[in-house]
Amino acid sequence: MTLAFDADRLRAAVDVARAALVEDGQHPGAHLESATEGEWAVAHYFEAGLVGYRGWQWCVVLAGAPDTDEITVSEIVLLPGEGSLLAPSWVPWNERVAAGDLTPGDVLAAEPDDARLVPNQIDTGDEFRFPADDEPSADDDEEIGQVAGELGLGRRRLLSREGRDEAAQRWYDGDFGPRADMAVAAAYSCATCGFYLPLAGALRPAFGVCANEYSADGHVVAADYGCGAHSDVPAPKGDGSPAYDAYDDGALEIVSVGSAGDVTS
């Protein structure tokens, strides 16, 4: 028995494939095609016609063997066809989370290998710890506690250079960066504004926090961002519109129009 003969026999066994589906409790539609899947195997495709599975197909794989006429049902599976309605690809939760998704009570843990963070090698427990009123202390205890806290002592992980650079780029490209519409229309930059509070550390030259309640209050702004509420913006002079003179509406004369269209006073 040759391969060609056996493959032809398997391709012709549409009724065997359909009977396998019926026996499995399915109701296959029209036979769509047969495809040779390799040596001694052919796949038969049928319309599925299942509710909610538009365009899907039943696939029945029939198998043969040398020196035998027996046909074996190897596999039955439901597969999507052209134009099928498919569920979107699964995306891990940590890739689905977007800015603004966090709500009160939610917990969003940073991964152990988060590239934005690096382990802190020193943990003294004295950061931002200042002696109580009844506790003896040296004159410089308060300064030491403040400096220790600013250096990150006591925090298990600190911002990495990559994390810092990502944040800086995000802020620079965001709503409070130099290319924002507000900044483009402004005459003065934040770096020269009295409401501008520079950040500490490596980001100090480029970013600060706005303290103007009528502008970007509490937001990180780029030093070259700007708005119309700059501390040096001059107040309007109050001279009115220079394009038009005031009009005395007391000089108007009320007139009426007659039935023939004549104007009478």
What features would you describe in this structure?
The structure is a single chain. This protein has six helices and eleven strands. It is 20% helix and 20% strand. By secondary structure, it is α+β, with helices and mostly antiparallel strands. The protein is elongated, with a radius of gyration of 39 Å. It folds into three domains: 78 residues; 49 residues, no CATH class; 61 residues, no CATH class.
Structural descriptors:
4-stranded antiparallel beta sheet, 11 strands, 265 residues, alpha+beta, single chain, 3-stranded antiparallel beta sheet
Averaged pLDDT: 84
Q: What summary fits the major beta sheet?
A: 4 strands, antiparallel
Task: Trace the largest sheet across and list its strands.
Answer: 1-2-3-4
Rg, rounded, reads: 39 Å
Structural class: alpha+beta
User: How many distinct folded domains?
Assistant: 3
Low-confidence stretches: 1-5
Q: How many beta strands in the DSSP annotation?
A: 11
Helix share of residues? 10-25%
Sketch the topology as an H/E string, one letter per element.
HHEEEEHEHEHHEEEEE
- Alpha plus pi helix count: 6
Strand content: 15-25%
Broad shape: elongated
Termini, distance in Å?
119 Å
